[in-house]
Structure to design on (160 residues):
């Protein structure tokens, strides 16, 4: 299990506003090129966003589903990565004075990721979380990462 935390110099409400906007997912989640609504009203339980991962000329579309949500405090997601499997990603916001301590806890659930889960994979996830929390802090603290354009309904890729 990979757990990482970071102090973000904004209130929990300001951090939650970014998490609660499914179209901003690509602004802070490492490896994600764009995100768009798939069903429901993000971040209500059962709602989903689609996202595209691009590496060079290669791209893959996936979905993330909200499995639990305590507004302003906790968001539990299931990232569905097609043949790679699924992962549980929990984001917890803890008030820390005027700021927010953000804790991310992720582990593979099913598929290849779940079968091959080991300390090496956890180390990779830790590195990814460090970058992800840095990006989230930049978006929240500096207003960077203004929402990337979601694909239009005509060009939106179909999730795997």
């Amino acid at each position: 299990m990979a757990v990482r935390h970071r102090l973000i110099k904004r209130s929990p409400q300001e951090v939650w506003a970014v998490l609660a906007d499914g179209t901003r997912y690509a602004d802070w989640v490492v490896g994600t090129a764009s995100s768009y609504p798939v069903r429901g009203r993000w971040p209500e339980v059962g709602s989903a966003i689609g996202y595209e991962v691009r590496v060079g000329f290669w791209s893959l579309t996936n979905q993330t589903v909200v499995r639990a949500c305590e507004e302003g405090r906790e968001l539990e997601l299931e990232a569905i990565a097609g043949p790679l499997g699924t992962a549980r990603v929990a984001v917890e916001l803890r008030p820390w004075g005027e700021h927010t301590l953000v804790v991310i806890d992720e582990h593979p659930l099913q598929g290849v990721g779940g079968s091959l889960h080991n300390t090496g994979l956890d180390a990779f996830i830790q590195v990814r979380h460090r970058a992800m929390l840095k990006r989230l802090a930049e978006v929240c603290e500096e207003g960077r990462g203004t929402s990337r354009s979601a694909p239009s309904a005509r060009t939106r890729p179909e999730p795997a």
DSSP finds four helices and seven strands in the chain. The longest strand covers residues 58-70. The beta strands are 2-8, 32-39, 48-55, 58-70, 74-80, 86-96, 99-110. The mean pLDDT is 84.
